[in-house]
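Anyone up for a design puzzle?
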């Protein structure tokens, strides 16, 4: 009896463990949807949705930091709307401040709210908690980039370790034939998905074997690949020239006044960039048919080409923004002089009319300086929203309408639409992956000027998961050559790390080099944004701590730790060894620069 009871207890314990594992799997967001897609479309398509889910988790953390430490404190403890000029819509803009077109352009009341940099107050502490908002704003902006670096590098190292074991080429078909089925499956739907997954896995392995045994005319292949790269370079050059032309036009429109032009002139740059991002990847996909690469290699070439396209578009956009910033700063000098004269006249007239009343001015009529930080934030928000709308419209009017046309007109057409032209669409892995990566790059660059951007991206990723899962299952067909994803996830991470590094540079440049606007934002009244750190050290910490921090803030100590680890992790096949080597190099460079600084200080009598 005791043995029977022990066996039943062991069975119950095993059943509990199995049920608990199933419960943990069910708690993973969108796990069953991704498994179903993987079973029908292969691991290469599933790798995109796994990447999207991972980015959704990252953006939830960024949204929590920005919302909890910047937006909520200002909304609850800061001065209310209408209490000061930077928090008040100018009187000339009030009649249209709530119009849909104005709000859609993120102007009007949206511009003078916690969504953008210019609304935040420059008081060192706010509220009864004495919350240090300017310091929190700066640290959150830097902390989001530092956290993103840490998570991306850690994920790359984990993926490298996970891919390092086992030999997939030994008796591959035998292992799949005799060990693929899971005999614990009891759900008919799960069994169908498992059957489709095993079938797709066999297709992937067969393709790998065919590619290994394929013989080609090497001279013809080389000629076609050179021709394909020439066509790609012509496309990239044409795209760059078009963006340059549009940016120059937009600068001319800005000088003449955008209020004199219509919707197209105000949104020409964003629209052209979105259209190029939609049509150029399709052109690259057509050109790649000449090269006859292995599908995995072709995917990486496609990703690299679209990466070059998006990178050129993004930095052309940044150059245009820097030109606008310079124009705003020149305008700011004139406004400062006019404001001084305006306040003097208002004070004299108020004093002469009633010498006993205090000097009070309606904030809505006070002249404003141009807040270039808010302008930059608005541009990034508009570009992000434009990208979201382009993606959704492409899915609905492209994949869905094409699938409906093929499905219902195939019965009365001259040829078979399903197997001929246009047929059903295949899921564009490269275009969607690069769209995610560059959209995330815009979030990293723009969230310092528009704290609402992480929230917009969370909404975008959440809805994209459902919409694209539906589109894949209902409107797309599996690729004609199904292939294993292999280490695609780490390839995506490497590109994400590179774009994170590029996104960090403009933010750091504005923090340490460009003077902030004088009458808006948490850093107004300072020569540089980073001075808020020194102000906190002088007021809230002992003198010796400020001196130690001054030594530690030497750029020679900081830059090696910023520059070496990302570069080493991208360029070294062994990511762990690369990170360790980069850390050693960074420590050596930091030690040498610190020693040089100490010796230079001692030479002039500073100890």
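Challenge accepted. My sequence:
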């Amino acid at each position: 009896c005791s043995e029977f009871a022990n066996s039943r207890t062991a069975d119950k314990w095993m059943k509990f463990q199995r049920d608990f594992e199933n419960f943990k799997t069910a708690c993973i967001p969108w796990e069953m949807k991704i498994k179903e897609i993987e079973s029908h479309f292969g691991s290469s398509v599933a790798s995109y949705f796994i990447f999207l889910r991972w980015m959704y988790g990252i953006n939830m953390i960024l949204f929590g930091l920005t919302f909890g430490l910047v937006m909520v404190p200002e909304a609850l403890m800061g001065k209310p709307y209408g209490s000061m000029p930077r928090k008040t819509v100018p009187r000339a803009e009030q009649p249209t401040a709530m119009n849909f077109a104005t709000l859609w352009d993120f102007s009007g009341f949206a511009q003078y709210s916690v969504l953008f940099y210019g609304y935040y107050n420059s008081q060192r502490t706010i509220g009864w908690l004495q919350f240090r908002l300017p310091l929190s704003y700066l640290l959150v902006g830097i902390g989001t980039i530092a956290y993103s670096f840490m998570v991306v590098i850690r994920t790359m190292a984990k993926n490298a370790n996970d891919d390092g074991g086992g030999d997939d080429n030994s008796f591959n078909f035998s292992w799949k034939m005799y060990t693929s089925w899971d005999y614990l499956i009891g759900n008919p739907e799960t069994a169908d998905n498992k059957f489709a997954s095993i079938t797709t896995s066999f297709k992937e392995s067969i393709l790998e074997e065919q590619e290994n045994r394929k013989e080609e005319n090497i001279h013809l292949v080389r000629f076609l690949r050179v021709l394909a790269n020439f066509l790609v370079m012509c496309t990239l050059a044409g795209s760059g020239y078009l963006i340059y032309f549009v940016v120059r036009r937009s600068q001319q429109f800005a000088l003449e006044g955008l209020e004199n032009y219509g919707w197209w002139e105000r949104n020409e740059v964003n629209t052209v960039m979105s259209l190029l991002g939609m049509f150029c990847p399709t052109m690259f996909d057509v050109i790649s048919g000449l090269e006859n690469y292995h599908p995995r290699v072709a995917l990486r070439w496609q990703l690299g080409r679209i990466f070059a396209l998006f990178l050129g578009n993004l930095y052309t956009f940044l150059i245009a923004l820097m030109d606008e910033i310079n124009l705003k700063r020149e305008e700011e000098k004139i406004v400062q002089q006019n404001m001084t004269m305006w306040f003097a006249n208002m004070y004299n007239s108020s004093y002469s009319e009633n010498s006993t009343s205090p000097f009070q001015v309606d904030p809505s009529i006070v002249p404003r300086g141009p807040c270039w930080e808010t302008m930059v934030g608005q541009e990034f928000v508009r570009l992000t929203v434009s990208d979201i709308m382009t993606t959704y419209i492409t899915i609905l009017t492209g994949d869905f309408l094409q699938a409906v046309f093929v499905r219902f007109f195939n019965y009365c057409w001259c040829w078979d639409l399903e197997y001929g032209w246009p047929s059903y669409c295949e899921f564009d892995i490269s275009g969607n992956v690069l769209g995610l990566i560059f959209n995330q790059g815009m979030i990293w660059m723009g969230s310092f000027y528009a704290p609402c951007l992480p929230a917009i991206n969370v909404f975008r990723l959440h809805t994209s998961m459902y919409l694209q899962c539906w589109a894949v299952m209902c409107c797309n067909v599996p690729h004609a050559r199904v292939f294993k994803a292999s280490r695609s996830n780490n390839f995506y991470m490497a590109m994400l790390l590179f774009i994170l590094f590029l996104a960090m540079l403009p933010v750091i440049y504005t923090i340490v080099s460009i003077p902030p606007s004088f009458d808006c934002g948490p850093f107004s009244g300072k020569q540089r944004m980073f001075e808020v750190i020194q102000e906190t050290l002088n007021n809230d910490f002992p003198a010796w701590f400020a001196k130690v921090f001054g030594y530690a803030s030497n750029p020679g100590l900081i830059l090696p730790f910023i520059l070496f680890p990302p570069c080493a992790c991208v360029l070294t096949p062994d990511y762990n060894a690369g990170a360790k080597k980069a850390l050693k190099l960074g420590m050596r460079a930091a030690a040498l620069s610190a020693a040089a600084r100490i010796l230079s200080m001692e030479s002039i009598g500073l100890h």
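A detail worth pointing out: The first strand starts at residue 425 and ends at 426.
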